[in-house]
Amino acid sequence: MKRVFLDLGNTRFKWADDRLNLLGARAYPAERPAGAIAETLAPVSVEARLVIASVRNEGFNRALADELAKRGLESEFLRTATLPGFRPAYRRVEEFGVDRALNLIGAARDYPAPLLVASAGTAVTFDLLDSAGA
To answer: For the chain, which residues make up each domain, given as ranges?
Structure first.
């Protein structure tokens, strides 16, 4: 089964195919955002599994999962605490955003440690990977 990757940011959502080619990006609509996202993705997600990285709150994520399920779309929400081999130096791993975790995993795969990884979205974050990649 092919995958479609969905990035739910604070102000916009973006989706890409399993080769990471950007398929689209939109601002959240004012009304029924979860339903609108599901409607937008339905044509590109037929016979695909949606893999979702979301910085939105759990209520929104549950509403989106319900909307996707109503349309017969399979989805998986990535969680920082369950990413293989990722252990941030946070006491509460769930407070470390999945977007930041995925940035660090990608950087560690492509560049030798130690690294300073900067990300500029709604917020600007700086994360360090030591020489062991932790």
So the answer is: 2-77, 95-129
Contact 10, 121 (CB under 8 A): yes
Q: What is the pLDDT of residues 72-94, one digit of tens each?
A: 899 999 999 889 878 888 888 88
The beta-strand segments (E) located in the chain are 2-8, 12-17, 22-27, 48-54, 74-77, 115-120, 124-129
The model carries a pTM of: 0.86
Given the candidates 3.30.420.40, 3.40.50.300, 2.60.120.10, 3.40.50.2000, the CATH classification of the domain at 2-77 is 3.30.420.40
Q: Catalytic positions, please?
A: 99
With 0-12 CB in 10 A as exposed, 13-18 as middle and 19+ as buried, what is 55?
middle
